[in-house]
Amino acid sequence: MKEKKSYLLGSLLLTIVIVTSQLWQPKVLQNIFIAIGNDDKDAVMTLGVKLLAIAAMGLLAGVANTLISAGMARDVSASLRKDGFEKIQTFSFSNIEKFSTGNLVVRLTNDITQVQNLVMMILQTLLRIPILFVGSFILAMMTLPQLWWIIILLVVLVLITVVGLFGVMGKHFGMIQKNLDSVNGIAKENLAGIRVVKSFVQEEAEAERFEEVSNKLTKHTIIVGRLFSIMIPTFTLISSVAIACTLFFSADLARVDLEVIGKLQSFIQYLMQIMMTIIIGGMMTMMASRAFVSLGRIKEILETESAITFDEENGQLIENGDVSFNNVTFQYDGDERPSLENITFDAKHGEVVGVVGATGAGKSTLAQMIARMYDPNEGSIEIGHVDLRNTKKENLRESVALVLQKAILFSGTIAENLRHGKKDADCDDMVNASKIAQAKEFIDRQVDTYSGVVEERGANFSGGQKQRLSITRGVIGKPKVLVLDDSTSALDAKSEKLVKEALAKELDDTTTFIVAQKISSVVQADKILVLDDGKLVAQGTHKELVATSPVYREIYDTQKGKEVE
Ligand SMILES: Nc1ncnc2c1ncn2[C@@H]1O[C@H](COP(=O)(O)OP(=O)(O)OP(=O)(O)O)[C@@H](O)[C@H]1O
């Protein structure tokens, strides 16, 4: 908001105009009544025009202030959304896991909307409410000082009602917000996994799960509705009592002084303004307290520093694909024990390195660490003899391509997805890379070939096609190090063999890590790393490992048996 000083100044000036108009109108009306009492038609006309002018001035200022507040609120939320999204892009895997993706989405959408409302509210009411309250209070006191106790009584009654009702309402609003998050979360999860829901006939169970949170949401919404339905008659009652008391106790005064009839009008109007300011103030406090929680949640995103940082000025460039792990130990945040322990190995550039091990042995963790998705807790990882912590971001990302276990594509075209691997990839690059990944054939079958549409998450492609496209994206930039994390699992044996042969031929200078469940995927590798429960228990060629590593032989034997079956 500080960046928009002109908005702030404009809103401040307009607020002064609005408040002046609101405080002035009852006084003019009072004079009109007095003029009517004196049968002074000219004065009535002049004062009537004056009243209209003041009201019009207040109205115009109100419209202008609403426009300014809405503009400011829109700009603030747009810039928060942009900054928040850009910040999240810099987050490391561990940062994102800490927040969770669902939570980040709620912060970027719902929380920002809360802050947008807060900004609007601040500009429209924050200044106006206190000034109007104090002004109306003083003017009411000055108008009919004899009835001071009615003002005090009104303030006390309204305050008690506001604190009581809004206090309870605030709690339920909080619960509504929480349940709304759950409803959103369940709906999102359900829709993302609708195929699984249907194939396991989970529709009813899912509907029940949804209904449970939805009912909670309804319950709190009904309570808030009921409180609102009590609130309005309560305030009407308080104002009616205040007006009745005013009329009753001013009757004697009016008998003595006829001007009191005019004063009554403005006194009652000031009373109503006092009441409204307390109600709006209370509502504002309640909503603001929620919006401040949202603001805190957004601030948390903006102030979180990425767990992975790069030194763009003094960072070193990776010259070749030699990879070495030196005593690397790594533990995920929140895990009780390390996923990788004292891992040490070297791979020369151009080598093919297989990584095998049982489920949960740490293969994917190791794969991701080569691309510096996580930094080791102990030890170091070097590529091209540069510690990954001393590299430059772009250079590292160009040097190391990671093809993840789960092929993720973005909505757009095939070409746009492939260009994630190489910004300026031309047609030849795409054709060559898709040949390596055995993707060319099905891309050519698309009506628009490389301009073919990719739906959200690549929904219009089969699992094997998605994997081929993501391998294409990985190899298109001819990286120095290519990490294939179980990325050929959905390919048939023939295609997998062709991919490997093409990689060996076309990317012979690239160090290729092949993480695999199947030993058959890595038998030809120059070196195979055998992981067991986070430890590197053996390394060597297939032949050497069959002869020397019981863990490797056990995996090999079980898989051999399966193939025979
Ligand atoms: N993001 C994470 N947060 C916390 N713990 C994790 C995370 N990812 C993996 N782990 C833990 O680290 C260990 C190694 O997991 P990893 O995914 O590296 O195994 P893997 O050998 O690739 O298994 P698989 O063959 O089943 O893919 C497991 O015990 C797992 O629970």
From TrEMBL:
It is a multi-pass membrane protein. One of its GO terms (molecular function) is ATP hydrolysis activity. The chain crosses the membrane at residues 47-72, 118-141, 147-168, 227-250, 270-293. CDD domains: ABC_6TM_Tm287_like. Pfam families: ABC_membrane, ABC_tran. Residues 9-290 form the ABC transmembrane type-1 domain. Gene3D superfamilies: ABC transporter type 1, transmembrane domain, P-loop containing nucleotide triphosphate hydrolases. InterPro entries: AAA+_ATPase, ABC1_TM_dom, ABC1_TM_sf, ABC_transporter-like_ATP-bd, P-loop_NTPase, Type_1_exporter. GO terms for cellular component: plasma membrane. Residues 323-558 form the ABC transporter domain. PROSITE patterns: ABC_TM1F (PS50929), ABC_TRANSPORTER_2 (PS50893). It is found in: Cell membrane. Keywords: ATP-binding, Cell membrane, Membrane, Nucleotide-binding, Transmembrane, Transmembrane helix, Transport. This is ABC transporter ATP-binding protein. It comes from Vagococcus coleopterorum.
